[in-house]
Design a protein that fits this description.
about 180 residues; mainly beta; disordered C terminus
């Protein structure tokens, strides 16, 4: 069984959500880690994302997102994803997403972009993962009605994850006994 780790410097966990019902606000999480194991046709994936690392390029909004109205980082410092199935042929990954202590099964689109060896001899694989989730399903329901109708923040969140993973090399060390 192969083991892989996320190459954080070449990966991004991003999202976007409607604002005022007329445009989208984009953001990402700067701190995340994960372990993957198995074969590329049947990966087991466990990802942990630090909710306090949310960044939308607006300090006041980011502080609001870390508050109990949204991620409640003090009580829920991370969100997690644990895969249940990975189907390379149908380009889907299904698993349990836990945000703010609430877990739901989600199915995401997953494109495998291939494999390459970097200049230092490391084997890497690339994926683009995307899909929509309802923030209300995860108790991220804070909102404000607009006098023109609609709400300040849309319910649907578009996930956009660029993932580069590194194959871990296990070297067998043998000792010669004299």
């Amino acid at each position: 069984m192969k083991k892989f780790i996320i190459d954080n410097s070449h990966s991004e966990v991003g999202f976007k959500v409607k604002h005022l019902m007329i445009s989208s606000v984009k953001g990402n999480f700067g701190s995340f880690s994960g372990e993957l194991s198995g074969s590329l046709e049947n990966l087991n994936i466990m990802v942990n994302v630090s909710t306090s690392s949310v960044n939308t390029n607006n300090e006041n909004r980011d502080q609001h997102l870390t508050s109990p109205d949204f991620f409640d980082c003090e009580n829920h410092p991370s969100l997690t994803f644990e895969s249940k199935s990975f189907d390379v042929t149908n380009k889907t990954i299904t698993g349990d997403l836990t945000i703010k202590g609430v877990t739901h099964s989600v199915s995401l689109d997953c494109d495998y972009n291939g494999m390459s060896v970097d200049p230092w001899g490391n084997t890497k694989h690339g994926f683009e993962i995307s899909g929509n989730i309802s923030r209300g399903d995860f108790d991220l329901s804070w909102n404000s009605p607009l006098e023109t109708g609609g709400v300040l923040v849309g319910d649907q969140v578009r996930l956009s994850i660029d993932l580069q993973i590194l194959e871990e090399v296990s070297e067998l060390i043998t000792e010669t006994q004299n």
